[in-house]
Design goal:
The chain is of the alpha/beta class and 480 residues long. It has two domains: 261 residues, Type I PLP-dependent aspartate aminotransferase-like (Major domain) (Aspartate Aminotransferase, domain 2, 3-Layer(aba) Sandwich), CATH 3.40.640; 109 residues, Aspartate Aminotransferase, domain 1, CATH 3.90.1150. It is built from 16 helices and 13 strands. Strands 3-9-8-7-6-4-5 form a seven-stranded mixed sheet, sandwiched between helices. The chain has a four-stranded antiparallel sheet with strand order 10-11-13-12, covered by helices on one side. Helix 10 links the parallel strand 7 and strand 8. Helix 14 runs parallel beside helix 16. It is globular. The model has no long low-confidence stretch (mean pLDDT 95).
Length: 480
């Protein structure tokens, strides 16, 4: 048996490269990423390729290894080149993600050290770092010391965790679900629908409150509907407001909604995945006044803190609700020692196996300082306003409302013919060009093009380029 064990050890030696082998692959990877960053200004934001990455299938997973050169080539040709380049400043669609360099170093260290971040007992430092970041964000929102939170993969899981917590906090049972009422607007992100369904509450009544011209919830209609639902014997359970919608960047009247929710004893949740971090700016802090009145809030560092994809945050004002829903134990965890002033993430979230996500956020915040993030966010607000003003000057175009945050909408209205069809062609032409990447939405039956400025590499030259491309492609369509 000993010989067999030693033989298997030799066979698996590739899993533990020596210093020279590590240097060889590391140097190749670093050189590749350095080229990627140096060339990012010259590369397209969106690239339509013929096979769309299908070349990966020509090199299936097998028992034999390949070289690092071959692996990087496969990645470059089949993953980096086709489709959207989310690290590009030209990514002006959806809600752009980030890709801060310092975050990658945090992820590298987290992966090499393989720190577990779920329970305080085996990894006190990782848990303290996590809780330190949760406290910093709670202070930004205005939550008290009783708050707690969870670093998760993104806004979808954060919103799901919030909804399950809200369900249990109000003591709802299966027999109640068909009487429960959820209040949102049509601007709410579709992950809220998914979360309600996954939480087992598909039977709950979904009520869409009307919005004003800025797509913000009308609070007088919200209050009237709550009163009607109470009189009808229903259970007003959950209000989901938005601090920055995906479609147009709308902000609901957070303070007014908070007062209504408190008056009627309704759980108040804010989806601030996109917009909540704008509270770091002076104007954003004013626009987002009232976040502190919510019971829970979601905010995504991989959006408006420019981090790589894979980090969303849920904050809950009263930690006891998170603990009630998520705290479980097992015999094999009997050695775990609770520390009264340090919550273990595994006790307040669905995850027991917990990736050390905190390091990818802590590293850039510490190495860059929050002033750099604030300046970048303020730049994005001004860039959106600049784009909106410039588009309004171009004949034939109509623009949406002045952007509250960093999303703005526009469409061309031809003198005759189908405006929706024209704007579809315009967007297709922009995407085929590929230097910038825009997206569309449907607003009151109108095909509308969106520009979202949130990539940290998007600057004035990026917006000027977008304006140039839009004018150029519009002229080409009109001349065709």
């Amino acid at each position: 048996m000993r010989d067999k064990i030693l033989y298997l050890e030799r066979q698996s030696a590739a899993l533990e490269p020596n210093a020279a082998q590590r240097k060889e692959v590391r140097d190749q990877v670093v050189a590749y990423t350095e080229r990627f960053i140096e060339q990012i200004e010259d590369n397209k934001a969106f690239n339509i390729t013929e096979d769309q990455g299908a070349g990966l299938y020509s090199s299936p997973i097998s028992g034999e290894p390949i070289s690092i050169e071959e692996a990087l080539l496969l990645f470059e040709e089949n993953v980096e080149k086709p489709g959207l380049n989310p690290a590009s400043g030209g990514h002006l669609a959806y809600i752009p993600g980030g890709g801060l360099y310092h975050s990658s170093l945090g992820d590298y260290i987290a992966a090499i050290t393989n720190r577990y971040a779920g329970v305080f007992y085996p990894s006190p430092g990782a848990v303290r770092m996590t809780n330190m970041l949760i406290r910093w964000m709670s202070d930004l929102v205005g939550y008290p010391e009783s708050a707690a939170g969870n670093l998760c993969s993104g806004g979808s899981i954060a919103n799901l965790t919030a909804i399950v917590t809200a369900r249990d906090a109000k003591g709802l049972k299966g027999a109640d679900y068909h009487k429960c009422v959820i209040y949102t607007t049509t601007q709410a992100h579709h992950c809220i629908d998914k979360a309600i369904n996954i939480a087992g509450m598909a039977e709950a009544k979904r009520t869409f409150i009307a919005v004003n011209e800025d797509y913000a919830m009308l609070t007088n209609e919200l209050e009237e509907q709550i009163e009607k639902d109470k009189a009808a014997g229903l259970i007003p359970w959950l209000i989901v407001a938005a601090s920055g919608t995906t479609d147009v960047g709308a902000i609901d009247p957070l303070e007014e909604i908070g007062k209504i929710a408190n008056q009627h004893g309704i759980w108040y949740h804010i989806d601030g995945a996109y917009g909540a971090f704008f509270a770091l700016t002076k104007s954003g802090k004013e626009l987002l006044r009232g976040m502190n009145l919510s019971d829970s809030i979601v905010m995504d560092p991989h959006k408006s803190l420019f981090l790589p994809y894979g980090l969303g945050v849920l904050l809950v004002k009263d930690r006891k609700h998170l603990q009630y829903t998520h705290r479980f134990s097992a015999n094999y965890l009997q050695d775990v020692i609770d520390v009264e002033d340090e919550l273990s993430p595994a006790d307040i979230s669905p995850e027991l196996t917990k990736h050390f996500r905190a390091l990818r956020m802590w590293m850039p915040l510490k190495l860059c300082g929050t002033k750099a993030f604030t300046a970048c966010l303020e730049e994005k607000l001004l860039l959106a306003q600049y784009f909106h003003a410039k588009m309004a000057e171009i004949p034939g175009f109509e623009v949406g409302q002045i952007p509250k945050l960093s999303v703005t909408t526009f469409r061309y209205v031809p003198e005759s013919g189908d405006a929706n069809g024209f704007n579809k062609k315009l967007l297709e032409a922009i995407l085929k060009d590929g230097r910038v990447f825009l997206s569309s939405t449907n607003l009151e039956g109108k095909f509308t093009i969106r520009l979202a400025v949130l990539a940290f590499r998007s600057h004035l030259r990026t917006i000027d380029l977008a304006l140039e491309i839009i004018a150029e492609k519009t002229a080409e369509i009109l001349d065709s």
